[in-house]
């Protein structure tokens, strides 16, 4: 089988090469994102695999010269699936490449916010050692943590929180399948009102758009902390900033920024990441920002590459693909 891989990073290359050697398939590697122009690089291929947060528009599927596309990531809200179906392109994704990677990142973010690491570092950079010693922290085991979303990642988060001894609340819509986990299911408004920390692990489908908005923030405890390692659109950034400025919220950790797709397109086209909302968040010591890297571990990268490629082989062989989106 001949596969063209787009959006390839250097860390993925060894896994692509190892898979190609093991399976005796040809894989061409391109650093470019897949778009209406670069898709012609796959003219001689049987399938493509991609990793990107920029859009997969209808025009791309109209011009795509192959019938199979495997995403090397879990998010697919940037894919025009209706257009893919219309042009008979089968699309798969990798929904659970490493739940532990994202869960550990979320817990790390909680601990950093609880120990006020941002203000401490700011004071140290200002050479104010005495001020740096005044930021008293809180302990995770003494907190109530609201976990919104109890799929693979949410359950991994709950398991770690149980080890710390934290009280865990979840929304009562979807209960975890793991019977060993300790948690209390409550309605969402109650979760928001009682939680010291709220961590998001939900998909970015329309029903979750701006799930945490001005109304939700008003329900939260003073000083509440928010962790978003989920999808960019689940947080209303403008409302979030309002409640950070007012002091209602104690802090936030954002790994998936609401406007990241547009900002990355601007960065690629103009070499300029000029977003005033991002800049204001970046200026706040009680805000932790990261560039969509919660997933980014060696285990996750290997799984993303191998699972995406395996799904393309299954497509080509006429076998069922459990992770198909179309």
TrEMBL record:
<dbReference type="Pfam" id="PF02826">
    <property type="entry name" value="2-Hacid_dh_C"/>
</dbReference>
<keyword id="KW-0520">NAD</keyword>
<dbReference type="InterPro" id="IPR058205">
    <property type="entry name" value="D-LDH-like"/>
</dbReference>
<feature type="domain" description="D-isomer specific 2-hydroxyacid dehydrogenase NAD-binding">
    <location>
        <begin position="107"/>
        <end position="294"/>
    </location>
</feature>
<dbReference type="InterPro" id="IPR006139">
    <property type="entry name" value="D-isomer_2_OHA_DH_cat_dom"/>
</dbReference>
<dbReference type="GO" id="GO:0051287">
    <property type="term" value="F:NAD binding"/>
</dbReference>
<dbReference type="InterPro" id="IPR036291">
    <property type="entry name" value="NAD(P)-bd_dom_sf"/>
</dbReference>
<feature type="domain" description="D-isomer specific 2-hydroxyacid dehydrogenase catalytic">
    <location>
        <begin position="11"/>
        <end position="324"/>
    </location>
</feature>
<dbReference type="InterPro" id="IPR029753">
    <property type="entry name" value="D-isomer_DH_CS"/>
</dbReference>
<dbReference type="InterPro" id="IPR006140">
    <property type="entry name" value="D-isomer_DH_NAD-bd"/>
</dbReference>
<protein>
    <submittedName>
        <fullName>D-lactate dehydrogenase</fullName>
    </submittedName>
</protein>
<dbReference type="Pfam" id="PF00389">
    <property type="entry name" value="2-Hacid_dh"/>
</dbReference>
<dbReference type="GO" id="GO:0008720">
    <property type="term" value="F:D-lactate dehydrogenase (NAD+) activity"/>
</dbReference>
<dbReference type="InterPro" id="IPR029752">
    <property type="entry name" value="D-isomer_DH_CS1"/>
</dbReference>
<comment type="similarity">
    <text>Belongs to the D-isomer specific 2-hydroxyacid dehydrogenase family.</text>
</comment>
<keyword id="KW-0560">Oxidoreductase</keyword>
